[in-house]
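Notes, Module 5: Reading structure tokens.

Key idea: the token line is not a picture. It is a compressed description, and you learn to read it the same way you learned to read a sequence, by spotting repeated patterns. We will look at two proteins. The first is printed below with its tokens.
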Amino acid sequence: MKRNKLGLWLLTALVVGNMVGSGIFMLPRSLSAAASPAGVLLGWAVTGAGVLMLALVFGNLAIRKPELSGGPQIYAKALFKKSRTLSVLAGFMSSWGYWIGNIAGYVAVITTFASYLSIFFPVMNSKNVLFTVGAFELKAGNAVTFVICSVLLWGTHALILRGIESAGKFNFVATVAKVIGFFLFIVIALFAFQQSNIGPFVDTRTSGGETVGLLGQVNSAAVATLWAFIGIESAVVFASRAKKEGDVKKATILGLVISLIIYIGISILTMGLLTQSELQQSQNPLVDAISSILGSTGGNVLAIVGLISLIGSTVGWVLLSSEVPYQAAKQNVFFTSFTKVNEKGMPTVALWISNAIAQVLLLSTVSNSIASAFDFIIYVATLAYLVPYLISSVYQLKLGLTGETYENGKGRALDIVVAVLATVYSAWVVVAGTADIKTFLLGVAMIVSGIIFYPFLLRSLKGKKEEKDIKQSA
């Protein structure tokens, strides 16, 4: 029973691996532009506290509702359990949006991997035209990039088909390697830190021609840092594959602490290696920062750490993206065909369909029109990532207020307080993270677009029920 199960450290590696991806390399620049050092520190404090509440919510739900496995979006089903129709519809819509958003997310990780690899292989930037069809030109660099991205995608696919434990161990090795690399960066930066580079600890920033004070900077910094925590739910998604139920909560909190140390350490220390002006103008702040100490060799080593980081993130996100519809199908809120697994227990249909969609999106590396469409999907997928956090928090609050799963009342009051704080933070994240009403409405449209496939889901569930009735009567 314990074979092909994930222990505490493999679950923790999935959390850290999915949270610490490509975003860490540009985050110091984004934060420097958004806020002064004081604003950055306060922004991290707000985000860290909010995400800690979410981590506690995820951990509590994994223990109190172990039957609801598959990710935070699945709690939408349980919120409306009194109405079966509404329950299935809510579960399907949230799972649909979250699934599509995750696929777009790991395609972005794969294309980022290619951009880092091009540092070592200039041919990937070649502008030589291989052939032309009408207005379309296929350049050598784009063709090589497409092939490399496809190899990474399907290599990850083959690895995952070998079983959750094999994929988990690979992700663990990649995560350990990048954690060591980032901690070495932090140690080196500590010795080379120049306080004079930070400049005024409290200073103004400008946005849209207007001066932004400290409070506005904290808001901007908190919005920038919240993206660092996408993936905090990873252990919850794989709850049904954990060796112990309690490991899900431990892995979520442990993964959060490790990621926080890396993110805060790097974003703060980078400000002491480059001046604020250099940091805001840098196209690759971490590489520039380490190169200022160790030269080009240090920059190349960090680029290799980035490649390892992205490979690990690819494995983690592809795993997660196939697990989401698989678990949703087991909960009867997704197509029953997605429950099919191979002899290793891996969801083959979910994996093949997810990666087939990803392969189509990878055409963005060879076509500007497809690239624009892909950018649009990433843009509107924002809400699909954030809404499940709010759903989870509200569901935990509901459990606390109704007393469900709290037979002896132990811990109920504290869990209600945590749920309230997580709900407030999640609501703010949805509002702030979608930036404007256009992003919000387009995000809602993407989630609701699943309604097109809803009749097929009902037909699928009807067929499953009829098959079950036949077996029972036989």
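Here is the second protein, with the sequence above and the tokens below, as before.
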Amino acid sequence: MGGWRVEWVPDPWGWRELPEDGEPDVQDLPSRVAQMGLLPGDPVFLSPDFRVDEDLLDFVRSPEFSGLERETKRNYATDIRLLLDFLWSRGVRWREASRRDLRDYRVWRCLAPQNPGRVGGSKWNREAAAFTRLYRWAKVSPLPVDVGRAGDRAPDGGRDRVCWLTPRTWRLWMDIGLRGQTRSRVAAAEWSARTETRNTAFVGLLLSSGLRRQEAGSLLTFEVPQQRLRQGMYCHGQVPGALTRAKRDRTFYASVAALGDVETYVQSERAWAVRRAQQAGRYDALPQMRVITQVTGGLRSRVRWVDRNGVEGGQALSALTWQERQWLFTEGPEGPEPAWLWLSERGLPLAPHSWEGVFRGANVRCERLLRPREADRQEPALAYAPYATPHAARHSFALYMLVVLNELMEKRYGLTPRERRDFALLFGDPWFLVQTLLGHADVELTKRIYLAPVTHLRLSSILAAADEQPPGPTADLDAVFARIARETSGIVDMDARLETAR
């Protein structure tokens, strides 16, 4: 007998076609599921004896769970399933779990040498939050776990998921993982480049803007920044509040080069995917479609639409969730086409969490190509491969912008220490500016988590000690990042490690 399983309620267009001769009770399964109060993305827990746990079903439909973001629901349900497996192996029903059971589970998850998949403090704190929410809803007393109790919370939470890659390491990761190059940095003969332009454009946008995966992954085509900052190399755009963690609109900046790659994707891969979907009639088969009729300007932009039944509607652009954004279409020359920027090969909106699969595939390819074969074990440095995640791009953006801002202050503007203090009083120091770019409410979060490797360093000494003066104000910072990587832990500089081994 296997373990617990989680089945996910699909989106309206994700239901498989049921056989006509199937059971009468499941012929209209989507409407029956909706009548039960389940939403797309909701989990359904199946016990090892193939029964739906009705108590957990009630929890999923409760205000304590149903009001969570979809990605949070997915994370919490996955965490709860692992706990259910552990308790089932002990013959303990989840409602009957004791503090000792949860302590033993924490030891297994975080400390046990026999567990090859141990997790760090940040991951455990998220799991403890999920369990606390479940047991509070179930009114289990005493609570077997409470994330608010110091003893149930990991003190090192928030740091184990942080990862920084230097710019040249990102270039290596993209060349091999997303562009299909070999270890010699030439195109591989067997590489299929069907989504290469899309994937590289998305990663480039993350690195250039510091946007979170959901923020960048839910953009609409007309939200891609177009207006340059004077004659500079950056454009500015707006992140809608419904997509941010703080639920407030935020200005973001992206480089002209990164946005050029996005435009290339729109004109090539995306246009082809849309055309193929139109020819195959995929958009005609969608159960939900809202064709945009107007997008108003101003501080509170609104989008107006008409659905398939001719019913008109509208909403503030900043209030649309990423799920609602997937339903928006524009009228193109060959018929309706998605307003959603990032599309699958089938021409359908690519959900934000789907980017995890793209990164995972790129990581596997880097590991496979950069890990030496048995005959190459004399070169241990080549066994190291860069590992990237969407959030690592945000961490790396923070570090890059901190170095660039200090570079501009100290070299381009030639500020003296006194002038720099005056500048900081007027406009904020680089720490504050990076905090603003990331959208953090507290600069201490920016320092403690995102920029932890360099909080103990004086950035003026970092820049002054670069191996050589770059030809322009920020033309080549590889030497600066190489030195930071050598003198601090947690920052991956692939080329530096290879050069050290040679």
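Summary for the second protein:
- The CA atoms of residues 69 and 198 lie 26 Å apart.
- The radius of gyration is 25 Å.
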